[in-house]
Write a structure and sequence with these properties.
- This is Hydrolase, TatD family.
- Keywords: Hydrolase, Metal-binding.
- This protein has 257 residues and is α/β, with parallel strands linked by helices.
- The protein has one domain (3-251): Metal-dependent hydrolases (TIM Barrel, Alpha-Beta Barrel).
- It is built from 9 helices and 8 strands.
- It has an 8-stranded parallel sheet with strand order 1-2-3-4-5-6-7-8.
- Strand 6, helix 6 (158-166) and strand 7 (170-173) form a beta-alpha-beta unit.
- Helix 6 runs parallel beside helix 7.
- The mean pLDDT is 97.
- The structure holds zinc ion (ZN).
- Zinc ion (ZN) is lined by residues 7, 9, 37, 93, 202.
């Protein structure tokens, strides 16, 4: 069964040599649709150009917390205009990242929260990235709750997952779910209801086992779906079907045959 990749970065330099060959191949093979994320204004524009080229490639527009340095003052106005495009189906990826020294927590929080407000104004779902900043993310989500949101590449605890679910979150898993040391992600996956789970690659990163370490593309996602099926005790086809339905509903995708 063809699968929907809800989070990928085909603008990444790793695809510079063969981007369109890869997309042509996987979209005619086992990939039904892709949502390409953006991390700053130039990648928003690139993502939109990809959606023009492929009928079943959609995108999110937004500023990633690691890319806030060059953000123009009028970023909200720019994003509002870009988000008017029908194939911009979400605001993302946005959030908090305190992983590397030198981050500006205050500015990250301000940009994150402003983008949630924009998403709510436009009734668009939000794609959230959070690394080493769970407490501050929860604070913001309680204060300014997105109408609809997904926490991507989830590897947090079941306790945090429960708190997120109460706020209405969807939770999305990458190939990390297949890693031997991903016990927390697996335990969380066990307790998340099937109608709140989505799958993604975060391509070109996070390739699932047995591709771990290599450049990841959406065609590898079936391995993550197999793992999800195993955790939930259902057939792989069923897991793919459920996740595809969740993605279509969450992002309001208009997939063309
Ligand atoms: Zn990403």
């Amino acid at each position: 069964m063809k699968i929907i990749d809800t989070h990928a970065h085909y603008d990444d330099r790793w695809f510079d040599e063969d981007r369109y060959e890869v997309l042509d191949r996987i979209l005619s093979d086992n990939v039904l649709a892709i949502i390409n994320m953006s991390v700053d204004i130039p990648t928003c524009e690139f993502s939109l150009s990809l959606t023009e080229r492929y009928k079943n490639v959609f995108c999110a527009v937004g500023i990633h917390p690691e890319n806030i340095a060059d953000t123009p003052d009028n970023y909200i106005d720019i994003l509002r205009t870009l988000a008017k495009n029908k194939k911009a189906v979400a605001i993302g990826e946005i959030g908090l990242d305190y992983h590397y020294d030198g981050y500006d927590a205050e500015r990250q929080q301000e940009i994150f929260e402003n983008q949630i407000k924009l998403a709510n104004e436009l009734s668009l779902p939000v794609v959230i990235h959070c690394r080493d900043a769970t407490e501050d993310m929860m604070k913001i989500l309680h204060r300014t709750t997105p109408e609809k949101f997904v926490v991507h590449c989830y590897s947090g605890s079941p306790e945090t997952a429960k708190e997120l679910l109460k706020l209405g979150a969807y939770i999305s898993f990458t190939g990390v779910l297949t890693f031997k040391n991903a016990k927390k992600a697996v335990h969380s996956c066990e307790i998340i209801p099937s109608d709140r789970i989505m799958l993604e690659t975060d391509s070109p990163y996070m390739a699932p086992v047995p591709f771990r370490g290599s450049r990841c593309d959406s065609s590898m996602m079936h391995k993550t779906a197999e793992k999800l099926a195993e955790i939930k005790g259902i057939p792989t086809e069923e897991a793919i079907k459920i996740c595809n339905e969740n993605a279509v509903r969450f992002f309001g995708l208009d997939i063309k045959s």
